[in-house]
Amino acid sequence: MIVLGRIVAPFGVLGWLRIHPFGDDPLGWKAIPHWLLSPDADVATDAWQMYVPATVKVHGGGLLAKLQGVDDRGSAEALTGCYIGALRSDLPLTGKDEYYWRDLIGLEVQNLQGMSLGHVDSLLETGANDVLVVVDGKNRRLLPFVGKVVVNVDTVGRLILVDWGIDW
């Protein structure tokens, strides 16, 4: 399951939803045939409830969506706080040097000197750039996910090569 965002509030009286996306291309969600909703992002895939998106649009700098079968404010209020997810197989393919965060979590991080810095535990969104949270058991490092630091990402080989000192 790839968590895409979260429903933050109803919008209007006709079942529209205001959404906080976790990625940088939420209009790409239009291509996803089914959205899966759950109040808990960490439950098993079969615990998520399936919805079909009818419309997704930007409105006033935010993201709005209308789901089939959610036709009034009460139904929309009942979904407030739910996470929006999708199966990996339903997501659009990524372009060159684009990654879903889920694909980076767990990858080993190694510097140019061949020293392991640990593995990617999570990522943070800072506004300026994303940040890799790298953990090696005793240390926690925050590495900016930018071209000057990240030299290569090999999702198949499960390795991220970075220009970063072991003692930084």
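Next protein, fold it too.
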Amino acid sequence: MDRMSLRAPSAGLTLMELMIVLALVALLLGLGVPSMQKLLHGNRLRAEAHRLLAAINMTRSEAVLRNGPVSMCPSAMARTGRAECSGVYAQGWIVFSNADRDRVIDPGIDEVLQVFEALPPGYSLTNRSGTRELSDLISYLPDGSSRKNRSLVICSPPQVPVDSLSIVINIVGRPRLAKDWGQCARG
């Protein structure tokens, strides 16, 4: 018997088989990554909407609990450490007792109750028509009413087509979450 016939047949893959496997993996990744991105951004959007809703509910319950006006305003206090109402809600927000119901946090009179971080980069918080970012003061009176209807629309980054989520506050002050209630500016 010659030495060549005693060897076992090769158990590897040919170059053509490897190329086919790589092409299939690339195709599956190309199809799967965009839907995974949409899922991740959708989850992040829901988390941010629930965080904002919790802040609004806290503002309302603190007004009733303290029997005095409590407000929520845009503020970068989480980043800067300065207790002031400025900018837009996407940069962060604070909840504070607001005896004179203005946009100024008066030392010794008003108290900052909670500070919230900014929205993730690319996310925005706009009015219902999506034409401007929000900077209005959200105030509650001791009876838990806000006396103003409003809608806050949270949008994902423009390159990710995820349905918007809105927080709708009725005139009595009750906030609720609504899916696709407003428009997002898509660029």
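About the second fold: The domain at 39-179 is CATH 3.55.40.10 (minor pseudopilin epsh fold).
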